[in-house]
Design goal:
The structure holds two protein chains of two kinds. Chain A is an alpha/beta fold. Chain A is built from eleven helices and ten strands. In chain B, the strands form two sheets. An eight-stranded mixed β-sheet of chain B has the order 6-7-8-3-9-10-13-12, sandwiched between helices. In chain B, a hairpin with a 2-residue loop joins strand 4 and strand 5. Classes of the chains: A alpha/beta, B alpha/beta.
C-alpha cells in the first residue's frame, strides 16, 4: 500500500548543530507510527519539520531530504518544496498536530467552541452556524460530556484531560489524513492518559487517519503503535513492527533503553525492592 | 524498634477565598520505618506533595502530629526545629530550579554543612568532595556551575546536598520524574545503593507506579487528601483492594505490546478538593484486611 506520508533522508540543522540526520520513515492510513527517543534525540524536530514549523521562529533549516505527502487528489507532493501559502492550507487541514500541553495551545480569551469553529470556518469554508454544528459533532466524537455546555467554556474552566480532548477535536475537525501527536499524554495523569490513549485508538479506527505519535514513554508505544522508529542523537537507530522492537531489538541502544524502562508487574513475587539490571551502552 | 517517623491524623487545609477550603491533606496517619522506603502515590492534586511538605514543616500543619525519632516536630518553633531539620532532607523534581545558577554546585552542597555547623575550613571541601564521590560524580565537578551539568548529574548534586547533614529521612518529591528513562534508572539504582549503605529511610512521592513497584517496601495510595489504601508493596500491586488503587493500576501503560488491553472510553475525572464554606469531606474509615494492609471502606 502507498504511504500517506513518506519522510526520506530528512536532515535538519540549527546553525552548526544537526538535530535530525538522514531520517526516513513511512506512515500508512489507519496505522500508528511511534517515534520514540529520549530528550534531544530529534523526535520533536522531526514532527515540526513535517509541519514545516521548524523554520518558523526557531531558525531551523531543512538541509536535505523529502517529505512526500499524498494530497487528497492522490498526487504526492514534497512538503519541503511547498511555499508558506500552500503549507497554510495543509496545516490543521490535511495534516494536523496536537502538543503536550493543551493549555499553551489554546487561546485563554476565546471559548473552546469558538477556537475549534475557527479551524473549520477557515479550512472548510463553513458559515458560523454550520461550524458550530461541526464543533458539537467533534466534541461528541471525542466524548466531551455535556458538549453543548462545554463549547462556551474557556480553557481555564476545563481540566487538562478535557483540554486535550478539545485539542484532539480541533485537530480532527477537518478530517486530516495525518495526525501528529507530540507527547499528547505526557502532561496528563495516568487515569486520564489511559482515557486519551483509548480515545486515540478508537478515533484512528473511525477516521482512518494515519497517526504519528512522538513519545519518550515505551509504555505508550506498546499501547498504541503498529510500527516504531527509535531515535538517538538525531539518527534513526532501529525501526520495525512494535512486537519486534520490544521482543527482538537488535541495536544496543534500543536494548539499553528497554532495560531501563520500569515495567509494572516486573517485581511480582519478590518481597524486596530491586535495582534495575542496566545494560551498558557506549555511544 | 520504633519507626523513624510517625504521622498521626495530619491535616493541612488552605483557604481559597469566599470561605472555601482546600482539604489538601485530611486525617493522614502513617509510619516510615528505619531503612524503609514508603512510597506515596496518587494523581495531581491528591495531596501527596503537601503531605511531604507538611511532614518536614515546609508547611505548618492545620492539626495532627509528626513524630520524628521520638520528638513531635509539628509544633516546634523555628529555633528548636533547626536541629531536627538536619535529620530530614528533601529532593525535588526539577534539579535546575533547586540550584542557584550563579554559584558553583559545590557551594550548594556545602551550605547545609555550614548552616548546621558540621564542618569548617578545609574540612568543608573535603566533605563536599566525599559527597560528590558518594553520588557518582567526580570531586572536581564541585567547582562547576549548574548549566554545565546534565539533568541526571544535577539531580545527583541535589542528592549529595540532601545527604550532607547525614539525614535519617530523605523525601524524594517526584525526584526522578523529569529525567530521561535511562538516567532515571541510574538515579533510582543510586538511591537504592545509598539506602543500603547509609540505612536511609525514603518517603518516595511519585505518580509513576512502575517506578514505585521497583523501589518501595510499602505503598500508600492517596485520593482527595486521604489515604485509601496502605500496605506492603506486594499487597498493593498483587492484591489491590480499593477500587481507586485498582483503577490506577489498570491505567498504567504496560511496556509490552502483547499485554495491550482494551481501554474503556471513560470520561470521569477526579472531583475537586475545594469545599465551599460550611462543608467538609467525609473521613474514610480504614480496615485491616491482612497484617499491615489497610483499606478504606467503600460505601
Amino acid at each position: 500500500m502507498e504511504p500517506v506520508l513518506s519522510v526520506r533522508g530528512l536532515t535538519v540543522t540549527f546553525g552548526s548543530f544537526t538535530a535530525v540526520e538522514d531520517v526516513s520513515f513511512d506512515i500508512h492510513a489507519g496505522q500508528t507510527l511511534a517515534v520514540v527517543g529520549e530528550s534531544g534525540s530529534g523526535k520533536s524536530v522531526t514532527a515540526l519539520s513535517i509541519m514545516r514549523l521548524v523554520e518558523l521562529g526557531t531558525r531551523g533549516k531543512i538541509e536535505r531530504g523529502e517529505i512526500l505527502f499524498r494530497a487528497p487528489d492522490g498526487e504526492m507532493i514534497d512538503l519541503v518544496q511547498q511555499p508558506e501559502g500552500e503549507m497554510r492550507a495543509i496545516r490543521g487541514n490535511q495534516i494536523s498536530m496536537i502538543f503536550q500541553e493543551p493549555l499553551t495551545s489554546l487561546n485563554p480569551v476565546y471559548s473552546v467552541g469558538d477556537q475549534v469553529a475557527e479551524a473549520v470556518i477557515l479550512h472548510q469554508g463553513l458559515d458560523k452556524e454550520a461550524a458550530n454544528e461541526r464543533v458539537l459533532e467533534m466534541f461528541r466524537l471525542v466524548r466531551i460530556p455535556e458538549a453543548e455546555k462545554r463549547m462556551v467554556q474557556f480553557p481555564h474552566e476545563m481540566s487538562g484531560g478535557m483540554r486535550q480532548r478539545v485539542m484532539i477535536a480541533m485537530a480532527l475537525s477537518c478530517d486530516p489524513k495525518v495526525l501528529i501527536a507530540d507527547e499528547p499524554t505526557t502532561a496528563l495523569d495516568v487515569t486520564i492518559q489511559a482515557q486519551i490513549l483509548g480515545l486515540m485508538r478508537d478515533l484512528r479506527e473511525q477516521t482512518g487517519a494515519a497517526v504519528l505519535i512522538i513519545t519518550h514513554d515505551m509504555g505508550v508505544v506498546a499501547e498504541v503503535a503498529d510500527d516504531v522508529v527509535v531515535m538517538n542523537r538525531a539518527n534513526v537507530v532501529e525501526r520495525g513492527p512494535v512486537t519486534q522492537i520490544f521482543e527482538a531489538a537488535t541495536e544496543p541502544y534500543t536494548r539499553a533503553l528497554l532495560a531501563s524502562v520500569p515495567r509494572l508487574g516486573s517485581m511480582a513475587g519478590r518481597d524486596e525492592p530491586a535495582p534495575f539490571d542496566l545494560v551498558e551502552y557506549q555511544p | 524498634m520504633s519507626p523513624l517517623v510517625e504521622v498521626r491524623d495530619l491535616c493541612k487545609q488552605f483557604p481559597v477565598g469566599a470561605g472555601a477550603t482546600v482539604y489538601a491533606v485530611e486525617g493522614v496517619s502513617l509510619e516510615v520505618g528505619r531503612g524503609e522506603t514508603l512510597a506515596v502515590v496518587g494523581e495531581s492534586g491528591c495531596g501527596k506533595s503537601t503531605l511531604a511538605h507538611t511532614m518536614i514543616r515546609l508547611h505548618d500543619p492545620t492539626s495532627g502530629q509528626v513524630v520524628l525519632d521520638g520528638v513531635d516536630i509539628s509544633t516546634l518553633g523555628n529555633r528548636a526545629l533547626r536541629e531536627h531539620r538536619r535529620k530530614m532532607q528533601i529532593i525535588f523534581q526539577d534539579p535546575f530550579a533547586s540550584l542557584d545558577p550563579r554559584r558553583p554546585v559545590g557551594r550548594a552542597v556545602a551550605e547545609p554543612l555550614l548552616i548546621h555547623g558540621m564542618a569548617k575550613g578545609d574540612e568543608v571541601d573535603e566533605k563536599v568532595a566525599d559527597l560528590f564521590v558518594k553520588v557518582g560524580l567526580e570531586a572536581d565537578m564541585m567547582r562547576q556551575y549548574p548549566h554545565q551539568f546534565s539533568g541526571g548529574q544535577r539531580q545527583r548534586v541535589c542528592i549529595a546536598r540532601a545527604l550532607a547533614t547525614n539525614p535519617q529521612l530523605v523525601i524524594a518529591d517526584e525526584a526522578v520524574s523529569a529525567l530521561d528513562v535511562s538516567i532515571q534508572a541510574q538515579v533510582i539504582n543510586l538511591m537504592m545503593g545509598l539506602q543500603a549503605d547509609l540505612g536511609l529511610s525514603y518517603l518516595f512521592i511519585s505518580h509513576d507506579l512502575a517506578v514505585v513497584e521497583r523501589m518501595s517496601h510499602r505503598v500508600a495510595v492517596m485520593y482527595l487528601g486521604q489515604i485509601v489504601e496502605l500496605g506492603p508493596r506486594r499487597a498493593i500491586f498483587e492484591n489491590p483492594q480499593h477500587s481507586y488503587t485498582q483503577r490506577l493500576l489498570d491505567a498504567v501503560p504496560i511496556a509490552d505490546p502483547r499485554a495491550r488491553r482494551d481501554r474503556p472510553l471513560l470520561t470521569d475525572e477526579i472531583p475537586s478538593p475545594v469545599w465551599p464554606a460550611g462543608t467538609s469531606p467525609e473521613r474514610v474509615v480504614m480496615r485491616e484486611v491482612a497484617p499491615g494492609h489497610l483499606v478504606a471502606d467503600e460505601g
